[in-house]
Recover the amino acids of this structure.
């Protein structure tokens, strides 16, 4: 598609879409077909209608954290993928890239990346995400590793209140592998890029059905979550705090998380800079 200017009668090509955005479009198409094959044409129409409704609701919300939104149904999860997945991957990639570039220009050899770089040199890092949903933040870390040419394996774990995200995330990472029934099919540059991201994963994303609103269970000594947090080199909080800011347990939950992380681990915090919370 091109845009024609009435003043200069000049054709201006559209800006190319990011590879991850095009990948998300393919994921959505695949998930819609998969849903239709299970539920039939009538339910497919209901899904499309609900999907459009959920897109409008998510798009009109000023702040993600202010929404009392459930992602247990298929339509809200697909809407979230469309509207937020690409943005969140690039946010995490940008944060890590800017911070790393700034640290490489410092005269001091002691930076926040020292411990992480040791893990990268050893060939393996761990990520733990609080409330990451479809693991867009994990993909953002993979993009950062790819951008700077770091050859390391990645183990990822996620704590989220919606256990249905696990199946959606598995579908996303499966499509990153680029498996085609046609042996002669050649991957596109976008598919090569996402496949290279996937190759850095050591297994899938491990899910824990838990929440910052229930810190007693989450931060119980010896729990699987606590072990994963303590092993993580990067901990991400993608729009998680604003969603629990009104909960009285939030302060204790944050302190519990800070007590659990190991020295030198990076804490990547994404959230709104303004809002009622």
């Amino acid at each position: 598609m091109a845009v024609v200017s009435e003043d200069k009668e000049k054709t201006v090509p559209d800006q190319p879409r990011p590879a991850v955005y095009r990948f998300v479009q393919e994921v959505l198409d695949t998930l819609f077909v998969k849903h239709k094959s299970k539920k039939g044409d009538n339910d497919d129409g209901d899904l499309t209608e609900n999907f459009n409704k959920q897109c409008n609701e998510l798009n009109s919300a000023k702040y993600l954290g202010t929404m009392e939104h459930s992602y247990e149904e298929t339509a809200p999860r697909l809407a979230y993928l469309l509207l937020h997945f690409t943005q969140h991957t690039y946010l995490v990639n940008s944060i890590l890239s800017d911070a790393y570039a700034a640290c490489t220009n410092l005269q001091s050899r002691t930076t926040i990346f020292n411990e992480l770089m040791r893990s990268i040199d050893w060939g393996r890092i761990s990520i733990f995400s609080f409330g990451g949903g479809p693991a867009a933040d994990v993909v953002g870390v993979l993009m950062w590793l790819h951008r700077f040419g770091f050859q390391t394996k990645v183990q990822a774990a996620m704590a989220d209140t919606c256990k249905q995200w696990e199946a959606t995330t598995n579908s996303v990472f499966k499509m990153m592998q680029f498996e085609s029934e046609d042996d002669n099919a050649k991957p596109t540059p976008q598919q090569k890029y996402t496949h290279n991201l996937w190759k850095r994963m050591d297994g899938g994303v491990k899910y824990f059905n838990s929440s910052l609103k229930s810190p007693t269970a989450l931060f119980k000594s010896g729990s699987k979550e606590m072990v994963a947090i303590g092993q993580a080199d990067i901990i991400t909080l993608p729009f998680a705090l604003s969603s629990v800011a009104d909960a009285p347990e939030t302060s204790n939950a944050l302190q519990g998380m800070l007590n659990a992380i190991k020295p030198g681990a990076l804490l990547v915090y994404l959230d709104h800079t303004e809002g009622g919370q």
Observations:
- The two ends are 41 Å apart (CA to CA).
- The first helix runs from residue 19 to 39.
